[in-house]
Design a protein that fits this description.
heterodimer; A: 45% strand; globular; B: 112 residues; mainly beta; six-stranded mixed sheet; five-stranded antiparallel sheet
């Protein structure tokens, strides 16, 4: 498919475990964003990748959260020692990157619903 | 309070009526975007309006931007049941205030 792909769709895990969420952006898109959305809320920006530049990690809520983007394509968001408050839908979006941060429409995946027991 | 605040929080209308949603923000922006979200999952981009633009159209959608009032509106004309969704605005801060701030959304129900 030509859209943004996220996996898994759903993840249930026990408190204290580590989780990895994957995002496969649209081919050719240089910009990639991760967000978190809690029930009934707007999106909370987590991290932004643009090409080979250093990522903007200003939205990561704690040092338990990290993300990487290998080869300028697929990205992985890792949450270590998960807590119940980490339960949310994690959304990934990509864009052409032209004009820099937030300057182009973003294309979203369907998200990963993370539930911490 | 959070930048990018939409109102109303919820809106219920009949098919064929127009729906208007508003978004207010607090700081200077580079652009403002509207997105639609169905069933709490992926979002779909609707319109991007830049700070030097006042109005944009896309099909049945019309977006206005008033930078003096720091507000934007999204108008959906001749609404359809398929327009039922949550609508979010997001602002991209200008200059050194480079932030993406999402509102809490307006939940629109279009009744057949």
């Amino acid at each position: 498919g030509a859209g943004v792909s996220q996996s898994p769709s759903n993840k249930v895990t026990e408190k204290g475990k580590d989780v990895e969420l994957r995002c496969d952006p649209i081919s050719g898109h240089t910009a990639l964003y991760w967000y978190r959305q809690s029930l009934g809320q707007g999106l909370e920006f987590l991290i932004y990748f643009q090409g080979n530049s250093a990522p903007d990690k200003s939205g990561l809520p704690s040092d338990r959260f990290s993300a990487e983007r290998t080869g300028g394509s697929v990205s992985t968001l890792t949450i270590q020692r998960t807590q119940q408050e980490d339960s949310a839908v994690y959304l990934c979006a990509s864009s052409s990157g032209a004009g820099g941060f937030g300057n182009q429409p973003q294309h979203f995946g369907d998200g990963t619903r993370l539930s911490i027991l | 309070s959070q930048q990018g605040e939409e109102d109303p929080q919820a809106l219920s209308i009949q098919e064929g009526e127009n729906a208007t949603m508003n978004c207010s923000y607090k700081t200077s922006i580079n652009n403002l975007q509207w997105y639609r979200q169905n069933s709490g999952r992926g979002l779909v981009h609707l319109i991007l309006i830049r700070s030097n633009e006042r109005e944009k159209h896309s099909g049945r959608l019309r977006v206005t931007l008033d930078t003096s009032k720091k507000s934007s509106s999204l108008l959906i004309t001749a609404s359809r049941a398929a327009d039922t969704a949550s609508y979010f605005c997001v602002t991209v801060g200008a200059g050194n205030n480079r932030k993406l701030i999402w509102g809490l959304g307006t939940s629109l129900a279009v009744n057949p």
